[in-house]
Amino acid sequence: MSNYLAHSEPLHEGTLPGGHHWSLLMRRGKILRLIDTGGGANVGMLFYNPADKAERYNAPDTLKCQHTFKITRGHCLYSDMGRIFCSVVEDTLGWHDSIGGNLTDAALWERWGKVSYQEKRNDWQISGEHAFLVELAKHGMNRRDMAANMNWFSCVSVDGEGKISLKPGHSKPDSCVALRFEMDTLVLMHSCPHPLNQAASYPKAPVTYQVFSAKPVAEDDLCRNSCPENRRGFVNNVIYHQEAAS
Question: Which of 72, 138, 189, 201 is deepest in the core (most CB within 10 A)?
Answer without folding.
Answer: 189
